[in-house]
Amino acid sequence: MCLCVLMRGEGVLTQGDLARPVKTGEAAVVRGPEPFVFAHADAPRTEGGAAGSDETVLLTASYRLTGEVARRLVAVLPPMLVVADDHDCASMRGYLEAQLDACRPGRQVVLDRLLDWLLVCTLRDWFDRPEAVRPGWYLALSDPVVGPALRAVHADPARPWTLASLADAAHASRTTLARRFTELVGEPRLAENVMASAGLRSGVVRETRLDDARIRAARRVIDPVFLDTPLYRCEALEPGLGCAVSIKLETANPVRSFKGRGTEVVATLLAGGGSRSVVCASAGNLGQALAWSGRRRGLDVIVVASRAAPAAKLDRIRARDARLELVDGDFDMARERAAAIARYDGIRLVEDSLDIETCEGAATIGLELVDTAPSFDAVLIALGGGAMATGVGHVVKALAPEVEVICVQPLGAPAMTHSWRGRRVVTTESTDTIADGVAGRRPIPDVLDDLLLVADDAVLVKEASIIAGMRMLLDHAGLIVEPSAALGIAAILEDRDRFAGRHVATILCGSNVDVDAYHRWIGAVPPG
Hey, which of 40, 64, 378, 524 has its CA 20 to 30 A from 318? Predict the structure, then answer.
């Protein structure tokens, strides 16, 4: 896009079949990328350049537009527009002209900023004209509902804004704000538009590490036994939760968790070349999955786990011919030991959530969610290292932006949630939760960056709610799940008003649970 300001004289701007006369004091914006020509009434001038005589002076400034905000702006502009002289800007144009001959330090910076200022004024004047198309997003800042929310974001762009906090800033309900935002902007996903608004200030809208094409390709290498897992509305749960609930059953596979989707992608790549040995740290589920996928492809798999991990998970890792090494301490200690083995032995280290294959394998769950009717209002995802949350969240944002992505973590293992809320990595000294599968203390920066772009909210739930969720799934759905899989139900139990009347999907991510501990938690009497 190019701004043209005629300081003295008059001429004609031509681009293809378009021609617009321009007089002293008028400004024009040429959308591009096609070239244009400025010509005096009698003699042509150079393309996009300034006239060389004393009678005519044309200033031009070119702008390379990138990102979603720029795309929306260009989409509503005509190929060429001319705005008449605005007397309010006359004194500033005089100052601009004086700077052309000034040889003082900072001259170019001053000229650039003045031209930026003129571009903004020119575009605002254009949108005030009756023939201009004024899109909803342009009007949003002055809207009595959306305007206060946008101004709040502009005033504090680093804050982890959610629909609830924006509604508070706008003194409106979440439903009213979301509906009004949709009417003005034309997109139902409020968080995406908030991000675009922040991008207007920085000039950049970040993207996640995940790639849509690779996610779809992952489905072709993942064993079908992990794909198209049951997804159904569980009406028996609904009276106790006060909302429509659909469950995605990621326990109905050989490793009883969603982790097999990611390890299938990893193992396929390893089997295709390079090292035939691989090591990972695991709270139990990743190790089982990597052992299963590795055995089918002839890989030598080493799993490092905490001695405190559930015995049932450790036994299943051994049963799949993986070499199991136990360490004192928690999962993060196991992660350090696995990294040391990889360095010493020169073998591949698989880091859950950091290795993009684990995220993109999990993202195939999102493909199956959004391809299913009816659509959901929200999806609740257990949050640990972040592979499932970032993977599923990425797909939902891309293909079903009207669905709210809510991550759920135990109050006793809050590191990733605190990091998401603070927009920086927050570590904790320890964890205290029965949900061992999500009990990390040290979030991975790259994963947090991805999560910040796809999650609408991150919430913490109490241990009692997790246990109540497990009990509900047993009593009303006949499902035995591990604590991590009940986090979504726990979130509904703790905030029924938020989900009342909505259709919520939650992913039951695993069922590898110690039987004695399970009976203890839910208060059931073990058989026999």
Answer: 524
Confidence of residue 92 (pLDDT cuts 50, 70, 90): low
SS3 track for 179-243: HHHHHHHCCCCHHHHHHHHHHHHHCCCCCCCCCHHHHHHHHHHCCHHHCCCCEEECHHHHHHHCC
CA 293 from centre of chain: 29
Q: With contact defined as beta carbons under 8 Å apart, do 141 and 151 qualify? A: yes
- Distance separating alpha carbons of residues 25 and 12, to the nearest angstrom: 14
Task: Take residue 259 and report the two structure tokens written for it.
Answer: 């982790």
Look-up: residue for tokens 């246990």?
467
Tokens of residue 291, six digits:
């052992």
Q: Three-state SS for 65?
A: coil
Q: Is the pLDDT of residue 440 over 80?
A: yes
- Distance CA(423)–CA(418), nearest Å, equals 8
The answer to whether 477 and 236 are in contact (CB under 8 A) is yes
- Contact between 285 and 306 under an 8 Å Cβ cutoff? The reply is no
The DSSP letter of residue 44 is B
Q: What is the DSSP string of 256-311?
A: SBTHHHHHHHHHHHHHTSS-SEEEEE-SSHHHHHHHHHHHHTT-EEEEEEETTS-H
The pLDDT assigned to 368 comes to 96
Name the residue type at position 55.
E
Give the orientation angle of helix 285-296 with respect to helix 259-271, to 10 degrees.
Answer: 40
DSSP β-ladder status, 57-62 and 378-382: unpaired
Tokens 């009593």 appear where?
475
CB 190 within 8 A of CB 455: no
Give residue for tokens 């072709």.
220
Pairing relationship of beta strands 37-40 and 10-15 according to DSSP bridges:
antiparallel
Other CB atoms within 10 A of residue 115 CB? 18
Average pLDDT of the residues in 496-522: 94
Query: From CA 367, how far away is CA 216, in angstroms rounded?
Result: 8
CA distance 137 to 143: 10
In this structure, what DSSP letter does residue 141 have? G
The neighbouring-strand residues paired with 13 are 20, 38
- Indicate whether 460 pLDDT > 50: yes
Which DSSP symbol is given to 424? S
Q: How many CA atoms lie within 13 A of 487 on its CB side?
A: 32
Q: What is the pLDDT, as a whole number, of residue 132?
A: 77
